[in-house]
């Protein structure tokens, strides 16, 4: 599922003629295109969908939405490692080094 997720702009730069930002989504940091919100500034929040900042959002609304998404596990679903998610969805334990746990290999 693809969600529009609120994120906080950490830094902005121009890359090959395109405004790009480093955006924090509750601990997950991604690169985002700012062409739809050319006046967005560092420290502000925006709703981001498929790598594009689409709408400015106030900080309180952004925090509430991120907390709700985290509680529902939607941030992990949206930004998590697809191999880890597939393993866990199919009952295989997952270790921090990106491998299935030894007991799952028997």
Topology at a glance:
Layout: E1 5-15, E2 18-25, E3 28-33, E4 45-49, E5 52-57, H1 59-72, H2 74-79, H3 82-89
Antiparallel strand pairs: 1-2, 1-4, 2-3, 4-5
Backbone shape: globular
What class do helices, strands and sheet pairing give? Answer: alpha+beta
Strand content: 25-35%
Radius of gyration: 16 Å
- State the helicity in percent bands: 25-40%
**CA distance, first residue to last residue:** 32 Å
The largest beta-sheet arranges its strands as 3-2-1-4-5
Output the helix-strand order. EEEEEHHH
The averaged pLDDT comes out at 81
- Total strands: the figure is 5
Number of distinct helices: 3
| Biggest β-sheet description | 5 strands, antiparallel
Low-confidence stretches: none
Overview of the structural elements:
This protein has 106 residues and is of the alpha+beta class. Helix content is 26%, strand content 34%. The chain contains 3 helices and 5 strands, in the order βββββααα. The protein has a 5-stranded antiparallel beta sheet with strand order 3-2-1-4-5. The radius of gyration is 16 Å and the shape is globular. The model has no long low-confidence stretch (mean pLDDT 81).
Give a short summary of the structure.
The protein has 106 residues and is of the alpha+beta class. Helices cover 26% and strands 34% of the residues.
